[in-house]
Structure formats: C-alpha cells, structure tokens
Amino acid sequence: MINVFNKSVFSVVCYAVFFSTAFAERVYEKQGPPRELTTEQADIASGNYQKYCSLCHGENREGYKNDHAPSLKSKQLFEAGIPHSVLRPLSYGRQGTAMAGYLEDVGGPMTLDEVWDLTYWLFWESGAERVKLSENPVLGDAVRGEVVYQENCATCHGVNGEGVNAPALGNQSALAHNKDEFIRYTIEKGREGTPMAAFAGTLSEADIDNVTAFIRSKASGWKAEKPVLNDLPTPDQYVLNPDNADPEFELSEGMYVSSVDLFKAVQDKRKMILLDTRVPSVWQRAHIEGAIPFPYYTDLDDKVKDLPKDVQIVGYCSCPRAATEHIVNQLRGMGYDKTAVLYEGVFGWMNLGYPVVRAEGIVDKITEVQH
Length: 371
Description:
The chain is α/β, with parallel strands linked by helices. Helix content is 40%, strand content 7%.
C-alpha cells in the first residue's frame, strides 16, 4: 500500500515522465551537405539573387521587404528544405501569390543549372546543416489539428491557410512541393529570424502531427501544369489604340491610378501602354489584356528605346506595387513623365472582378532532375 507522501511523489514522477515525453523534440539524423559551388557558380548565383530576389526578400536575405516575402537566412528552412522545398518554388513559383516561377521552362529568366546553383548558394550562405527527413506521411487527427491550428496559427496564416502576414499554408503548389515531414519540422522548429516560433515546447508531439495532418488536408490534388508559352509582344504592339485619345487620369500622390479608372480607360479604348512588371512566367499565366511583359529586373537602357515618351504608361505587379514603383521611378528619372502605377495591383484588379487574359495550358508531369 502506498502512503500519502509516496502517492504524491508517484504522481509528480508520472506527470514529469508524461510531460517530458509529450513535449519531447524528435531527434533528426544529420545528412551530408549538398555539392559545393565553384567560385564562378557562386558569383553568378549571388548576382542572380540580387537581380531577381532582393526586391522582396531583401539585399541580405532578411525577408519581409515587400509582399511578406519570407526570410531566406533561416537555418531551419535550409536544414530541412534543401534541395526540393526551395528549388521547386524558385523554379515554378507559388500559384495565387506574388512568387513567380523563375525557370525558363515556365517563362522565367533562369536556366535549370542557374536555379540549382541559386538553391545551393542560399544553403551555403545560411550556414545550415542538413537533416534527413522521412518521405512517409505524417499521421495525425486532422479534426483535432484544425482546432489546434485555429488557436495557434490562424492569426498569421489565415483561417483556411490563405496567408495573412505569413505564408499561405493552404497554397496548392506549396502542398504539392513540400512533404509532410518538412511541414512538421517547420512547426516544431520554427524559423529563426522570423515571427514563426518553434512549437516544440508548446504543442505535444501528437498535436504537431495533428496540425501537420490538417494542413495536408487542404491539398486537393494540385498538378503542375506546363504552360503553352505565348509569343511575347513586339514593339509595334506596345501602344494600345494608337489612334485614340489619351486617358485622363487623376493620380493619387502623383503616382497611382485606381483599378476603376484604369478599367474605364480600357473600356473606352484609350491610347496607352500597359507594363506587366512581374516575372514573365506569370504574365504567361494571366495578364491584363494588351499588357507587355516588362519585368522589374529589366535592363532599362536597352528596353526604353521601344517606349515612346508621349504615351501614357501604366504599370502593375502583384506586390501589389513595389516592383512597378521600382520600374516607374527609374522611368521618371529618364524623362518618362506620363507614368503611373496600378494601386491595387493585378490581384486587386482581379478581386474587383476586372478581366484578365489567361493562358491555356496542358497537364504534364514535371519530372525531377537530380543534381
């Protein structure tokens, strides 16, 4: 028979054992680093980062400079995400977000080798050590996981994983690109240098599994589509309605035109040039009719020879404005005074019900290339 004192000690010991087990972190096996880059490959990758990525992710990879773009310095990301959880969004983008695909196969500016090299450059710059993650699904109770998710994650990631001021966890391309263990690792470990906290000391092992299962349940069979790439407009197609009158915009802050006013000018067939300042891969997917791809990293000295200064120019992006402001400020410095930025961006334009031209695509399985 156990006396009262021993019962108390027994209860404390049992609680401690339960608590330490329920909240214990998994031990992850380390794996070898990926291939190293030559000096030339690293220099090219560094230049590509500054050219294509720094506008949103920051010159020093710190993140959140524009459009809530996440930090690319976080060791936790590169510990678990190299290569494919970084390579795939870099290559193919995140549909429904401002993250475009940079691989030339989908209309981006980079070759496959350049995308791989940039992926590995980011890893080496992070100073991370790779961990080995299982390919097996994480089994959990998605119903319980939704409860835990709403209590701990929805404020930043959205009630349905749509993203508020943090990445959209319900994004279909993200769920297609990321395996369960990568999602689970991020919940457990957090992301250093970002608002994403580690939940290993807050949630039990079971609840981390449950939240992972809930996030995975948001997937709906997304398949990668290889678009049929349209021919890019030629300079003789840049000016819309060349024989008609100019639009009469009243720009807010001397810079911005509203979607309402731009749509009216489109309907009235006003004379103007529309610049889509996103990566051409997303122009291929959907754009405002008549817009020409004019990405934010454009070499303006070469490109402006085809832009007349006496025609109203309106640019747009999905940031919703950062990439276009970057271009328009440069154009104004070169004497292009008739320039404006679409205030709501293209997502705002579409959310207001205004039309875009969507490219037709064919379903094709994207095969993994091992490097």
